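Protein 1 of 2
SEQ + STRUCT:
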Amino acid sequence: MAVELRQLSVCDGRNVYEMLQDIGSDEYGFTNEVNGMTYDEYKQWLVKQDAYSRAEKLPPGWIPQTTYFLFVDEQPVGIACIRHHSSEELEKRGVGNFGYAIARAYRGRGYGNLLFEKVLPQCKALGYTKIKSFVYIENAASNRVFVRHQATLLGIYHGEKNIYETLVP
């Protein structure tokens, strides 16, 4: 099995678009703007996200972030977005350093764990020594991913989300 984490590219095509259609617009707090977009709108979204990764054309108050796609045997199966630095303001709203989602068709196969493992070096490259994540309590699969990767449970946010801190090796 060939597993690769690829940074979003303006050249990403229909296979990524179709994978993103298989992730809801808001699944356990992960916002997927592409769900429901036309293919042409998706291509424009790629250009916008690529610019955000370079801190260009950011809306006021936004933090630069880089988007990655997990490919397994050349098929995209998931997405991760990593903010380039922490934000106390976002944490006050229950938002962490990165978020991820696996397409419905690929859930239950361990790809969340693979994506998590592949994201950590990218976090390190951005200067993180630890990451903070807010995971909905009812999202059993993601909670298992964080526990498996030895995340420390710091507390519970508004009775809805577990707050995890993970050391970045």
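Protein 2 of 2
SEQ + STRUCT:
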Amino acid sequence: MFTGIIETLGEVKNLKKEGENLHITLASEIVSELKIDQSVSHNGVCLTVVALDNNQYTVTAIQETLDKTSLGELKIGDMMNLERAMVLGARLDGHIVQGHVDQIATCQNIEEKDGSWIFTFTYDAQLNNVTIEKGSITIDGTSLTVVDSKKDSFSVAIIPYTYEHTRFNTYKVGTIVNLEFDVIGKYVARLIENRN
């Protein structure tokens, strides 16, 4: 379980295919605090630490994860948003994030607004995920509030701190991101769907 508050960034140092699996090796300032078998959110995807080596660690993504997320597009040198699992009893500063990506989205527009930025994303509405204004959305593991909600798109406002300390400063029109929709909203949508 995560909060969507990004702790730090990690740099992709190596990508190794083994069968359908992709082993991703990263360097980050949190490596010394990690241990084998620990869950870490990588651009919103919960992956398990499988190896530690000095200032680098490795996680493995299976084919289903590669098919459903943007991780299959990774290149050496890419930066990833990182968050370790939340500690029970700590403040929940973002919202409840499972680290289970629902689908990908494409950055459609970036507008600078007097020191902040408005990012608009489009996604496949046929997968029946929904956003609501003032509701929560997780983009590449970052907990955000929806500003403008439509059937197949939404916008979020990004403050300078988030812009500087996450991958948002690397996004361009066309960038593919991972989305995790609000877990409570997903259950409500399923209940309504089952009633019909």
